[in-house]
Structures are given as C-alpha cells and as structure tokens.
Write a structure and sequence with these properties.
This protein is α+β, with helices and mostly antiparallel strands. Among the domains are: about 290 residues, Beta-Lactamase (2-Layer Sandwich), CATH 3.30.450; about 150 residues, Histidine kinase-like ATPase, C-terminal domain (Heat Shock Protein 90, 2-Layer Sandwich), CATH 3.30.565.10. The protein is about 50% helix and about 20% strand. The strands form 6 sheets. Strands 2-1-7-6-3 form a 5-stranded antiparallel beta sheet, with helices on both faces. The longest helix has about 90 residues. The chain is elongated. It is found in: Cell membrane. Keywords: Cell membrane, Coiled coil, Kinase, Membrane, Phosphoprotein, Transferase, Transmembrane, Transmembrane helix. This is histidine kinase.
C-alpha cells in the first residue's frame, strides 16, 4: 500500500525550508559531532601518551635506584674501610662493621658470602639456612661482576635474613572487585632490591658483598616515585596521581587510597590487566578501574634476576576531571550551537515568509476551490514577479473552470433525469423477472420431485414387497421357532412399513393434497429408543457417545413413522457434524408454549456448528451443506411433518460450538 504523506509534508514551503535548514540543523550538528568525537579520541591519545611518559619516568627511577644499590655495594667493597673492617671476622668486628655500613647505606640486610657458602653477616641477618648462591645476582658477583635486580624472597628466606623483614613483608589480601578469584589470604613473600659486588677478603679469597632493600610497605620509596612523576601542577585541578608496586597482582606498596587515610595495600589488580601484563608480558596503556575509581593507567611487568615476571610497576591519574572537562566542553559547544540556531532561524524564517506568502495564497485558493468554492481567487494585484504572473494565470484558469463547471452541472442535471427514468423502468422489469424466475425454479423443482417420487415409489416398492414376502416365508419355514426371533421380525416389519411411509411422505411433500396419514398416541422416549437402535452403527463408527435424559412421560398424537423420520434425520445430521467423535445428547421434557402443554424433544451435538447465514436457510427445500451426500429435503420435510402435527422445529447453533435442535409437539389431552 502506497504511503500518503501528510499535507504539511507535501508543502512546497516546508520542502524548501527543509532544504535551506538541512545544512544548519542536520549537517552542521553532524559535523560538530564528528569533530567532537575526533577531538575526544585525540584527547584520549594525549592522555595515553602522558601516562606512558609517566611510566617511563617511574621505570627510569626504579632502574636508577637499582643501579645505585649496585654502585654503593661495589664502592663499599672496594674501599679501604671494608678491607680493614673485614680483617678480623672471628672476633665479630666484621659483623659490627657490616651492620654500621648497612645502616649508613639504608639497606635492610648486608652480608658477605664466599664460594664455599660461608656467610659473614651483619648484626641483622641470622645467616642460617640461607643458600645465597642460589641467586643469579650473587653468582655473578662471585664470578667478578657487579649486578643488581629485583628479586622475590619467600618467608623462610626473609626469616633467615632477619625476622623483622618477614613481618614487614606480610600484607593481608583485601577482596577486590574484578580480580582473579584466589584462595590466598595474605602475601608473605617480599620484593627486594637485590645487589651484589665482587670483593677480596684479607686472606685473598674471592667473595661477594650482598645487600638488599625490602620494597613491601616501603612507602618512602613509592611516595618518592609519585612525587617525581606527578609534581605540583602537572595535573589539572581535581586529578590525582598515583603509583603502585605489585608483587604478582597484589599491591605491596602504594599511595592509592582505599578510603580516607588508609592505603590500598593488599588490594589486587583486575583480571584483564593481570592477563595482559603478567601473563603476556605486555604494557597496559589505557583506562582501568583502580580500587574504587577509574584512572588513566600504565602498567609494566617487573622481571626478576631469573627472567620471570614477578610483579608490576604502575602509575596513573584520575580520569574524572578529564571526563568532566570533556563533558563540559561538549555541553558548551551544544549550548553555543543552540544559541546561534535560536537567533538565526527566526530571522531566516521571517525573511523566507515574504518569499512564500504568494505561494501560500495560491495554496489557500486551491484548497477553497477543491472544497467547492469555485469563486475563490488569488488576486495578487499588480505584482511583476514570477510568482505574481503565475497567480494571475491561475485566476484566469479558475474563471474558465468555473464556466465549464456551470455547463457540466446543467448537462449532469439533464442526464440524471434521464437516468432516473430509465432506472425506474429497469427496476420494475427486474422485479417482474425475479418473480417469474422464482416461479420457474419452483416449478422445475416440483416437476423434478414428481419425477423422482414416481421413480422412487416404483423402484423401492418392488424390493420392499419381495422383502415382506420372504419375511412371511421365513416365518412359515421356522414354524414353532419363530418366537426366538420374533423381536427381529417385528423390527423388520416396522422398518418395511417405515420405508413405505417415507415414500408416501416424499410424494406428500410434492403433492400434499393427494396424501394423508393417521395419527397414533405415542410416548416420545419409546420412539427415541427405536431410532437409536437404527442409528447405532453410525454413532459407533463415528466414535460418538450418546447420552439420554428423559424427563417427560406425556403422550403425543402423531404418526409413529413420521416422528421416527424426524428424530432419525436430526440424529444422522448430528453424527455427520461430528466426524471426529463427540457427544450426542437426546432429552425430553414437558414444556408449555403459549399456554398449550406439550413435549419438547431436544437433540444436541458438540460438532462443528453452523454460521448464521447457513442457520437461517437450513429449513429451505433443496438447501444442503453435504453437497453430493444430501438432497436438502430432510429438514424441510421434517418441519412440514411436525407442522401438520401442530408442532414445530427450531434450531440454535454457533460455529465451532455445536448445534441444538428442539422439536415441540402438543401433548395428548
């Protein structure tokens, strides 16, 4: 179906205004949106570049700190003071010297180890159960090379160095949203800046001077990185720079706040960051959710002296101020655009109205003409513009249209008078033709019934006579045994008589003046019993359940075969309406109609029902819905038979809900 546009959408003025305003109201906002989107992407790129630069500074500081540790260890090992302090290790002076130097250099442990595994500790390390040469840093120093690295010491190794280090390294794990599920509750390993330098003992043996600094809970270390990376005014107001050192995925040193005054030690990094940085060894440069807010973040893996990824270095700053600044900028751009639009559009529309006013007058005039006012005119005056000339031409055309309309109306009036006269003649002829046709159809039907009746009477009466004769022969042949099948023979007699009666009634329907019947006093329930016996094979075959409810024992005066014919016809019709099975209910009850006592026989089915247009025609002769299976005479004959007995038949039905036929016959007085 073709869609019809509303009148305002078909207006030339509206279309021209749309064409004029489209660049300003659609294309310009689209261009601004694309520009803002591109600008937003560039800002994100700049933020990523900045946080990458921040990570570079933090990385360089940590590398420099590691190198300084190695340089200080190497300088101490090459000093005269070291040679003099190590001169008498058996007296304990060597340990005292190492302890003093450990404190002076800011190390958490300091010891000397030889190739044979002997350890000369400071006062802090215990020196027991500690395999120093397992570390690549120490092995390199014993081979003559100064080396420093970040290494992970487990709880036993830290305890062997100093019990206080094991306690300092302990960080309880705090449940963190979006982190990888874990069963751990505490981190006991320690991340250490580990350095070793080759030395010569006074007895000439080669040894290694080893020192280290625990980074767990080392807040001075992480605050120094944060102050170095995010100096004053390096971030916009409201933003905040943070730095963190991770052991595996747990924060062991951080200035990120879990809440006011408490650092987020023990919280964990998200599973997404862990996968990219720790598992794949890649640098993360993107926004990330850190503890309780979104940060522009940078993470890089920390590799120990064994070449394994053991932790992460993080720097980042709050995203919220940048996001708020971006939103404020977008809102400002939108407000400026709306303000410009609000000022310029009315000015443009006022200017455009002067151009479109003649077109609007033309449109109004055409609308009035379409509504029947043929005298409407534009009347633009003496304007010389193109639109004014078009308007004058249109007025001239309207004058011509008005004159032609007047002539057409005159011709139409004359034509209508002639059409009405001819129509009356045709209607009268049509009515006569319909009456003649109905008479012809009825005559043809009655003629056909007469021929059918004569043929039926001749063809059926002969075999009925043969059946009756053979039945008599069977009685004579059985002799005394005839009583055993007396009921069946009586039933056959009844049905032969009924066949003769049906033929008589069919002839009676065609020529009612030539036939008459005799009435009998009957109880309807007994007649129904006989009818159900005759139709039992049909109901069984169709899977129909028959139910009875006889509430009347009154007598009626009607010929038995006629009542049987009516009931059987209704029962068979009901069975045919339930081809897939159902329930057939037959009831009798006493019912007074207009003060006259009588008996009602009710036949109800649960079949397909009938449409209203079918229901109102079911008693018409030759009307049938069974096509080749019926003649259309059953209900018509039944209605005629009951009418002659002083009763009637009525039907009620609903499509899909079954039908209900009621036969009423006056009671015998």
């Amino acid at each position: 179906m073709k869609r019809v546009l509303p009148a305002w959408a078909r207006s030339v003025r509206v279309r021209l205004l749309v064409i004029a305003l489209l660049p300003m109201l659609v294309l310009l906002p689209l261009l601004l949106g694309m520009t803002v989107l591109r600008w937003s992407g560039k800002v994100d790129d700049l933020l990523t570049v900045k946080v990458n630069g921040d990570l570079t500074i933090a990385h360089q500081y940590m590398a420099r700190l590691r190198e300084n540790s190695g340089d200080r260890i190497e300088a101490l090992g090459a000093s005269v003071a070291f040679a003099e302090g190590m001169a008498r290790p058996e007296t304990g002076s060597a340990s005292d010297f190492l302890e003093r130097r450990r404190r002076a250099l800011g190390f958490d442990f300091l010891y000397v180890t030889t190739r044979d595994g002997r350890i000369i500790p400071s006062d802090t390390p215990s020196g027991t159960d500690f395999a120093a040469q397992d570390w690549p840093v120490v092995r390199a120093a014993l081979e003559g090379t100064t080396r420093s690295a970040v290494d992970i010491f487990d709880h036993e190794q830290l305890t062997a160095l100093a019990p206080s280090l094991a306690e300092r390294a302990r960080v309880p794990i705090v449940p963190t949203r979006a982190a990888v599920p874990t069963s751990r509750s505490v981190v006991e390993n320690g991340m250490v800046l580990h350095a070793a330098a080759p030395v010569r003992l006074p007895d000439g043996r080669r040894a290694a001077l080893v020192g280290g600094r625990l980074l767990n809970r080392n807040l001075d270390f992480i605050d120094t990185i944060n102050d170095l990376v995010y100096r004053d005014r390096s971030l916009p107001e409201g933003s905040q720079g943070t730095a963190t050192l991770f052991l595996d995925d747990v924060r062991v040193s951080t200035n990120v706040r879990l809440f006011e005054g408490a650092r987020a030690l023990g919280t964990r990094v998200s599973a997404e960051v862990r996968s990219q940085v720790l598992e794949r060894g890649e640098v993360w440069l993107d926004r990330a959710f850190v503890v309780n807010d979104w940060y522009i973040s940078a993470y890089e893996p920390i590799v120990d002296s064994h070449g394994e990824r053991v932790g992460m270095l993080y720097v980042g700053f709050l995203e919220a101020p940048f996001r708020q600044a971006r939103i404020s900028s977008i809102i400002l751009i939108a407000v400026i655009f709306l303000a410009i639009t609000a000022i310029s559009v009315p000015i443009f529309l006022r200017w455009a109205r002067r151009i479109f006013r003649p077109l609007e007058r033309m449109n109004d005039t055409i609308g009035r003409v379409e509504s029947g006012d043929l005298g409407a005119r534009i009347g633009t005056g003496g304007g010389r513009g193109e639109i004014s000339r078009v308007a004058r031409h249109l007025d001239d055309l309207l004058d011509q249209v008005q004159e032609r309309d007047r002539r057409l109306r005159d011709w139409a009036g004359e034509l209508n008078d002639k059409v009405e006269e001819r129509t009356r003649d045709l209607q009268e002829a049509n009515r006569r033709l319909e009456r003649t046709t109905e008479q012809l159809v009825m005559s043809e039907k009655l003629a056909a019934v007469g021929e059918i009746t004569a043929g039926v009477a001749h063809e059926i009466n002969n075999p009925v006579a043969v059946i009756q004769g053979n039945l008599d022969v069977a009685r004579q042949s059985l002799g005394s045994r005839v009583d055993e099948v007396a009921t069946e023979f009586d039933l056959i007699d009844d049905q032969v008589h009924r066949i003769s009666a049906i033929i008589s009634k069919l002839l009676q329907f065609a020529r009612p003046g030539e036939f008459s019947g005799s009435a009998n006093r009957l109880v309807p329930a007994e007649v129904i019993d006989d009818c159900l016996v005759l139709t039992r094979h049909l109901s069984s075959k169709a899977g129909v359940t028959v139910e009875r409810d006889d509430r009347s024992m009154a007598s009626i005066l009607v010929e038995r075969t006629e009542l049987q014919q009516v009931i059987i016809n209704l029962v068979v019709n009901a069975i045919h309406a339930m081809p897939e099975g159902g329930t057939l209910t037959l009831e009798t009850e006493d019912r007074d109609v207009e003060g006259v006592p009588g008996v009602a026989i009710i036949v109800t089915d649960t079949g397909r029902g009938m449409m209203p247009e079918v229901l109102k025609r079911i008693f018409d002769p030759f009307f049938t819905t069974k096509r080749s299976q019926g003649t259309g005479l059953g209900l018509s004959i039944s209605q005629t038979l009951m009418g002659r007995a002083g009763g009637w038949i009525e039907a009620a039905s609903e499509e899909g809900a079954g039908s209900r036929f009621t036969v009423w016959i006056p009671a015998f007085q």
